[in-house]
Amino acid sequence: MTAHIFAGGEMRSMDFIRIGTGDLIICADSGYKYAEQMRVNPDIIVGDFDSYSGELPENARILRSVPEKDDTDTLLAVKTAIESGAEEIRIYGALGGRFDHAIANVQTLKYAWEHGCEASLEDESNTVALQGAGERRYKRRDDRYFSVFSYSGELQIKRLSGVKYTLKDAVISDSFPIGVSNEFVDDEAVLEILRGTALVISSSK
Questions:
Q1: Over the stretch 139-150, which tens digit does the pLDDT of each residue have?
Q2: Residue 67 pLDDT greater than 90, yes or no
Q3: Given a cut of 80, is residue 54 above it in pLDDT?
Q4: Average pLDDT of the segment spanning 177-196
Q5: Taking 90 as the threshold, does the pLDDT of residue 180 lie above it?
Q6: Is residue 164 classed exposed, middle or buried when 0-12, 13-18 and 19+ CB atoms within 10 A define those classes?
Q7: How high is the pLDDT of residue 175?
Q8: Using H for helix, E for strand and C for coil, what is the string for 88-131?
Q9: Is 104 within 8 Å of 73 (Cβ atoms)?
Q10: Neighbouring C-beta atoms of residue 168, cutoff 10 Å
Q11: N or C: which end of the chain has fewer CB within 10 A?
């Protein structure tokens, strides 16, 4: 099952969002405004509601928290999605606006990943995800840069191919952004990691 989480950060467009039949829709506090704009009915709404004071739909499950809590509203939504059986989570409205919230949402990806769930942060210009050890292939997008950063101190890469700037048997660190703004040259990029965790970002040119 795929879960779609609407967080409350800034989004200029929602045209990129595709929700399938049977997908789970969760709103984190003021993220409900985006569900309203898309005219989709959320299954669950979570949060302390310090940033949304409007009426809530009667047919949604409401999980209220208090402002004095350890979890962000987005992390609460991710935990709820995992508890509901989601295998994939797509989070919208998590990158624009407050930078501290954007960092918190990137760390939330790590929480989902550590709990066996693939997660990504998405907006009209960016897709942010994590990759651990193993090989993964990324489809070519000519309108996007393809960036790889270390998210675990040192990242040991066996190969990065299908891009303009390739890597082989390389170690990159989280203190030198050598993997920024790469470009596709083949139909797909192949990233094979031996050790560590990568932050993989696709960004509009």
A1: 999 999 999 999
A2: no
A3: no
A4: 97
A5: yes
A6: exposed
A7: 94
A8: EEEEECCCECCHHHHHHHHHHHHHHHHCCCEEEEECCCEEEEEE
A9: no
A10: 10
A11: C
Q: What rounded mean pLDDT belongs to the chain?
A: 93
Q: What angle do CA 123, 121, 182 make, to 5 degrees?
A: 80
How far lies 67's CA from each of 44, 46, 47, 62, 146, in Å?
Answer: 18, 12, 8, 16, 37
The C-alpha angle 79, 80, 85, rounded to 5 degrees, equals: 100
Question: What single DSSP character describes residue 204?
Answer: E
- State the Cα–Cα distance between residues 76 and 81, nearest whole angstrom: 9
Calpha distance 8→157 (Å, rounded): 35
N residues, the chain: 205
Measured CA to CA, the distance from residue 205 to residue 202 in angstroms comes to: 10
**DSSP annotation string for 178-196:** TTTTB-B-SSEEEEEEEES
Alpha carbon distance 108, 61 (integer Å): 22
Specify whether the backbone of 39 is left (phi greater than 0), alpha (psi in -120 to 50) or beta.
Answer: left
Q: How far is CA 174 from CA 31, 109, 133, 152, 199, in A?
A: 31, 17, 16, 7, 10
C-alpha distances out from residue 101 to 42, 71, 149, 184, Å: 22, 12, 19, 30
Which residue, among 111, 44, 125, has the nearest Cα to 77 in the 3D structure?
44
> What six digits make up the tokens of 129?
């995800």
Q: How confident is the model at residue 58, as a pLDDT?
A: 80
